[in-house]
Amino acid sequence: MKIPYGAMFAAVLLAGCGGGSESGKDGPIMLGKMTEARSSVASAAIANPAYGTLVQQLYISYFGRPADVEGLANFQAQLIGLGVTPDIQTITEEYTRNPSFRSLIDSFAASEESKALYPDGTAAFVTAVFKNVLNRTPDLAGLEFWTNAIDHGGLSRANAAQSIMAGALINTSAQGLLDATIINRRVAFSTAFSAALNSPVLAKSYSGQAVAADLRATVAAVTADTDATTSGALIDATLLRLARASADRDDEVPGAQVHVIYAVPAGGADLRRDLGSALYDSVDSYNNWLAAQTGGRKLRFDLYKGNLDITFVRLPRTDDQYVAFGDFRRDTIEADLKAGGMLKTGKIYTVYYEGTNTRTCADAPLPPMLAGQVSVMYLNGLEGRPGILPCNQNQFAASAAAPPGYLDFAMLHEIVHTLGGVASPAPNHVLGGHVSTSPTDLMYAGSLPWQPSVLDANKSNYYNPAGLPAGVFNLATSEYLLPAQ
Predict the structure, then answer these.
(1) Where is the DUF4214 domain (predicted)?
(2) Of 206, 232, 373, 480, which residue has the fewest beta carbons closer than 10 angstroms?
(3) Would you say 113 and 97 are in contact if contact means Cβ atoms under 8 Å apart?
């Protein structure tokens, strides 16, 4: 085995094992969070992407997986803040002379995750590093070299994993060139994977030991033959596997709640809105508006691990087949969801449907007159009303904190329908579930352009905390509405 490590490895052999090390139970300790220096650190990382490469190399060396979003940002900040040159060939010397950097590297090695990946005995440890980093076992010369370096040459175990990677990257033998190709392909995959975590739901999907193990196995599948196309397909499949839910996940709290579904018709384009931020921001936007109207009360939405639980459903019919049902399109979508086991008692459902409707942007039942628990928004609808853009030309709220727009109000409008509003005994009831009070009312329908900005304009039709007459639906008493926060 040819080992042309030269001065780089000489520094390794001179490195002592001393210096304060810190370790966290589940991963490296962050030596400082990005605060007011965040923008300058981000600028430095963008200006020199080698920092991101180095973090990915360290993650692969010690954990066998890509960096998560927070870890990538924090460790880039650490490296930049410590003035470390972002080159794996030089960090061994940095480890020797810089106690703070040594603590950072030691925290990688001392984490429970890394210790579980690498066994105690030196020979077994070296073999495991080779398997994790180079996808092979060491030959006898290599095993003896690295074992001796750790046991007798002053190379700390904490510094060994990245040193083995660094050595492989400059080994010019045939085996060394193959090793370097594998490393570079895995780093490229990891860099692209971390960059693909570009929405809150995708970023949050990368958490927990099970996901870490999944990604470790995914990186292990990247070989010297994994080209950019194959890597891209692997990233895509991995993101869908980790972030997308095809069933209603376990509820965080019991009771009546609203569950969100992103539904695509058979043969239709999957735009993956459940993996972006638009639907999440929309729900937050109109729920925040509702809270401002009700003194702090919001709809109870189905959550999973603190985040909105959105289910992806590929429906059994094409959009053309649903169109053929005319005014019964929504009813058919609900029936298909029920037949597929997607609906549960005690929940109502808001379905963002990747299909068309020229009659309306959204549809809902109106219990008890029209039974049902599913409202549907037609994301490619073409309806146009005076002063209102066609459905597919409207946008969702720009952010969770932004005021709701037409589509956001439209879905909240349909949720109120699904809960039973507006009931026909209401004094200003018109047109099957609406009110005639003002075009600014959430539940208005009439000849004037709808410009929603108020919940029950005169507090006599569907929302009044003080009560409404018997037989008049009152959102204020709905079990789907949370107490004031």
Answers:
(1) 106-165
(2) 232
(3) no
What is the reported pLDDT for 12? 34
358 residue type, one letter: T
Phi, psi of 362 (to 5 degrees): -155, 160
Domains of the chain: which residue ranges? Answer: 6-243, 257-477
Residue 418 has φ and ψ, to the nearest 5°, of -60, -30
The rounded radius of gyration (Å) of the Cα atoms in the chain is 29
Domain covering 257-477 assigned CATH 1.10.3730 in the classification? no
Q: Which of 36-40, 221-225, 348-352 has the lowest mean pLDDT?
A: 36-40
Mean model confidence pLDDT for the chain: 88
